[in-house]
Amino acid sequence: MDRTWNHRAQNRQARLARAADTLGTRLRGKRVETGAVVDLLHAVIESGDRVCLEGNNQKQADFLAKALVQVDPERVHDLHMVQSVLALPEHLDVFDLGIASKLDFSFSGPQGGRLASLVSQGQIHIGAIHTYLELFARYFVDLTPRVSLIAAHSSDADGNLYTGPNTEDTPAIVEATAFSGGLVIAQVNEIVDHVPRVDVPAGWVDFVVQAPRPNVIEPLFTRDPAQISEIQVLMAMMAIKGLYAEYGVQRLNHGIGFDTAAIELLLPTYGESLGLKGKICQHWALNPHPALIPAIEAGWVQSIHSFGSELGMEDYIRARSDVFFTGPDGSLRSNRAFSQAAGHYACDLFIGSTLQMDLAGNSSTATLGRITGFGGAPNMGSDARGRRHASPAWLKAGAQAREGLTGARGTPRGQKLVVQMVETFREHMQPAFVERLDAWTLAEQAGMALPPIMVYGDDVTHVLTEEGIANLLLCRTDEEREQAIRGVAGYTPVGLGRDRRMVENLRDRGVIRRAADLGIDQRDATRNLLAARSMRDLVRASGGLYQPPARFRNW
Amino acid sequence: MTNSTSIESMHFEFDGHRHPAAFTPVLVGVVGSGNLEVMVEPAAHDRCSVGIETSARGFEAIWAAVVRDFHERHHLAGVTVSVNDMGATPAVVSLRLDQAVAGLKVAP
Hints:
Chain A is α/β, with parallel strands linked by helices.
């Protein structure tokens, strides 16, 4: 019996032929007239297709998203959406309208509440909430997109694409799609004679359409220093002295938030006073956080590789090409897959935050009524067991975790430092520490195989709150781990439920260290320690190169 | 803490044994959202007397624990502590209480 071995290629040719027929003169080469985009989607997308609609933390293929919700659900339905982020209303409208039915994703941010409601109504079947690297990996195994709708900054007449600083997910999406018989459709802000650099070769792109407006970019990593509290300054002092200096951390990633912004702003002041310059924090996998500008200017930072860019940082990045990964054209080339891999394998420390943590150290941002997904935390906040290269921080963490163990578990190896930095109470006095994560209830409600835990407790090495640092590497039993967490859980019900004698014993052993134990007087924790106390200070520190988005200009 | 139009009052008394040297009243903090002001005054008794006025209702158990821990840290005698709270977290409350006491000279 003869078998056809190029079915995908034939199907691809059929789709391209349909597009040519449908569009006629509205298609020239790869260029599609702006007004013909819905007809294009009708011609090339088939019901049941896996479709990637580029939506990241920042850059959005928003014009193509608006086009996709205009297709006729009678003709195109049961799509399986495979994408990083659900950020725009259209990302969920496709399910509401009956165009798509299945979803695999990583992060849902602003759409978290609506997603929870659509899932509970049975309108979306969730394959899984993935880590970024897991989702990208499955693009190359069993979740390969048939059609990908991507965003780039500009295209030339042939269809060579320039992504600008926010390359983000584009390389992973295009590579998987273009090399498996799929189709790549790009929206661009402008069509130019020559792109500044070719980020995606024309041969990998099937259609280019100029969007009426530049694609949406969200300044997700900008934190106004004016909103940093004294408690956050105190926690940052403990992080620098009790963790970064303690382990000699040189390679690291910071999650988003005011807690870590405070650390960044204390490096050139408090860090300097401790004599730590050159001894910690020289290499980063990090978006271009404006809060890092004073530390960069003071010579603390050698390199930063980024997942995406940050609005307003373009000129600053261009002028600091020794630090950032910029191309010959001077602009940043970010890459989410590479930066996630760097965070997973090359960083010695990840410090992030969470909404809930239980007594085993499991944490989740998926809470009742709101499924926000996890972003990069599951990759950054886990120990890469395939790692081989040694560094002092990695070795020390591994030695602490393995002390006294024998056999396979006692074999010498390092461990990544994974720190959860949380104030004991969140806004509206919601305790961050709980006996049972909402994730368990969500798993029951949505029929998930596993509770949506963001960072697993056995990957967490330290919990840092305003009450001190719990070093879970030194805990030898589940009971010790529970009391170490209760011991820094403050006045939450979990904290008030501590065994005071056992917590004091853990403190004597250095498992729990309070500010005073670290030689930090908490009254020194004032906003005066911040290297910049306002957005204006950040602009000044950048020599006027940083241009914050209008919403942050409050002077 | 939750918003409410009415103010909740609480009072706590502890026996102390560390008398500060004579001092003029100390005031720290500001009355504003998520913050509080703390005043410490000398009193003609041997106790540490703490009065709290808070805009956030329903957190008496947490206040009791915060104030108890404060007293265990300092064991002050002969002082009256007045707190005007606008929804500060326990961490901020503890910080302000310690800041207020920091200026007092206390016999060991």
